[in-house]
Amino acid sequence: MNAAASVDSAQIDALLPQTQCTRCGYAGCKPYADAVAAGEADINQCPPGGGATIQALAALLGRRVIALNPANGVEAPARVAWIDESRCIGCAKCLAPCPVDAIVGASKFMHTVLVDRCTGCELCIPPCPVDCIELRAAPIGAHNDAPLNRERFEAHNARIRQRSEVRQREIAAVKAALAQSAATSS
Ligand code: SF4
Ligand code: SF4
Ligand code: SF4
User: Fold this and answer.
1) What is the DSSP string of the chain?
2) Band of pLDDT at residue 142, cut at 50, 70 and 90
3) Which of 132, 139, 159, 169 counts the most CB atoms within 10 A of its CB?
4) What's 3-72's CATH class?
């Protein structure tokens, strides 16, 4: 695979569905775009984008259209996650993995999926300890709105970053208090 010397990876990223599902073999759409731009990944590794994305990438990069690589998955009708609320134990393990914050709920309370946000990326399914999340057909007309998905993903990352920074500050404050207390008592 040749590097797409004249094409910026942002141009490639702009053609991807932004579900961040990782099925391309990369940590998200932007890392995959970077790999395509660098010539390290082919243009046929994105199942959510399917044939339309392959065609768009081929046109952008001046490549020939090829079939979706079955190793990455198959093109399928849009689906959304559904939580069997009667079985949900409220553990909240599905919240953080959702790239677009499409699951609502609090610890020890049942959780539910915001269907109009869900991209069907499946990332919430493996962490659920009671297997109460499944994929169902998306409502008629549902589609992945890539710019909206990207916006929600960036907001999700910003929130996770902020929470981690707050936690780090709390830990530092506890350590400082312990050190001071040890110094005073010695
Ligand atoms: S939507 Fe496509 S490019 Fe983005 S992470 Fe999923 S497979 Fe990769
Ligand atoms: S609810 Fe599940 S399937 Fe839907 S976007 Fe979030 S992680 Fe993906
Ligand atoms: S991971 Fe499963 S059990 Fe835990 S809150 Fe989410 S849906 Fe409920």
Assistant:
1) ----TTS-HHHHHTTS------TTSSSSHHHHHHHHHTTSS-S---TTTHHHHHHHHHHHHT----PPPGGG------EEEEE-TTT-----TTTTT-TT--EE--TTS--EE-TTT-----TTTTT-TT--EEEEEPPTT----HHHHHHHHHHHHHHHHHHHHHHHHHHHHHHHHHHHHHHHH-
2) confident
3) 132
4) mainly alpha
Mean pLDDT of 151-169: 95
Atom of ligand 2 nearest to the CA of 120: 3
Q: pLDDT of 52-82, one tens digit each?
A: 999 999 999 999 999 999 999 999 999 999 9
- Do residues 12 and 4 make contact, with C-beta atoms less than 8 angstroms apart? yes
Q: What pTM did the predictor assign?
A: 0.88
Task: Indicate if the pLDDT at residue 1 is higher than 70.
Answer: no
CA of 64 to the centre of ligand 2 (A): 32
Please state, as a whole number, how many other Cβ atoms lie within 10 Å of the Cβ of residue 126.
Answer: 11
